Amino acid sequence: MNEQAVYLSDKLNAILAGAGSLLPELVLVLFFLLLVTLDLFKAKSIKRLLPWLALTGMFWVLVLQVLGGYTSGDEPFLNLLLSDGLARFGGILFSAAGIFTVLLSLQLKRLEKLQEGRGEFYALVLILVLGLNLMAKSVNLLMVFLAIETVSIASYILTLTFKTEKRAVEAGLKYVLYGALSAGVMLYGMSFFYGLTGTLNFSSENFVMGLLQADGLLVTVAAILILAGFFFKISAAPFHFWAPDVYQGAPMPVVALFSTGPKMAGILVILRFINNFTDATAFADVQLLLGVAAIATLVVGNFTALWQRTPRRLLAYSSVSHAGFLLTALLAFGTSYTSGVLFYLTVLLFMNFGIFLLLQVAEEKNGVQTLEDFSGLGRLQPYFGVMAILYLLSLTGLPPLAGFMGKLLIFSNVWEAYTLGGNNMLLVLLVTGILLTGVALFYYIKIPYYLFFKRNQSRENLVISPSEKLLLALFALPLLVLFFKPDLLLRWIEQLLAQTL
To answer: For the whole model, what pTM was predicted?
Structure first.
């Protein structure tokens, strides 16, 4: 009895000692409960307060993450969560994505007019950000699974925000089916790893030693199964089929969040996980698997985007191609590729929210549904046209915008890794990425072509509100600044990574 009491006391002390590392997540839970409670009241004044309350909660969390100091980050919390520099930077990106999502939702009149579910919408955004934070901090396979499922469940419901629309219901159903399949496969792979290593903590030395002593074929099979779940979250081939339908059926602020938040968190999880497979002699098959997945994602994303006639589906496959570039970056073993990955994720956050805000304005104000519907809008509204060109050039990876610097860092790291190790797969990845950047220009350039070179068949003028113009400028400014001064962000990233174990 005394031994049990001592054990429980030690565990309780460990929980209390590590509770500070979960301060951002505790704040998110507090505001979630507050939103759900206030949504029970029918007063219009309270309903109008809900989005601003959500903004307050996420801004508070953003400040906590930027300032730091709430945790030492010395060791994992109960061997489940690690609050290091990598998780902290991820938390900053997730909080920013949540804030941007709410700001976009305030510009969407259809959402503002929603009679039921507005409170749940903002509460679910908070829960999704909470799940993303847990994904970035997780160093335990079971904790990774729970965090991914938290994000997935919130995502399924957010997809069905406009549940009276047939397209939204179809997208939500497909999303749930694909998610359930990938979750089951991933959990099966995790059970393999536990059987092979005897531990779920994939940051421990015992995990790595267990993998080195296990049969290589079993390790490869388990890696394939577990990476299937990770690939689903970042919409990498061949687990990308949900993306076009979900992007087509979900509200635009939700689409912008899906294209950034889960993708960023998934990449951070993969980044932590593959650190166990850097030994090329022991895990050559796993590295080959990642390389093939990266090439397939690049090819599928870019070439499928060429044939799209609707902007939402085009941007969905564009998001798939960006997942391919990020997977390519993760294979540059032996280099400081983590800084390049985090830089690219930061740039992707601003690029995607900017282009999806433009599309939201075009859909709501001019009923744009196909690429042809953009005809002449750039000449009627030069501000809209110039911003569209800016974001699309950055998504392509052309100067003078930060998208160019992001891809340059990735390609530089891959070339450095190739010169160090002589792995021909890296050379293939490098050539493929450069060539497909050229392919991307062909489908991105379609939108400016319609904006400026096609005649407008409609007499309606595109009206952009001052708040929308301000948001577009807010998202565009970092893309210009980080092209000319990328070291501003890279130095900060390196300082944060110095805290990573």
So the answer is: 0.93
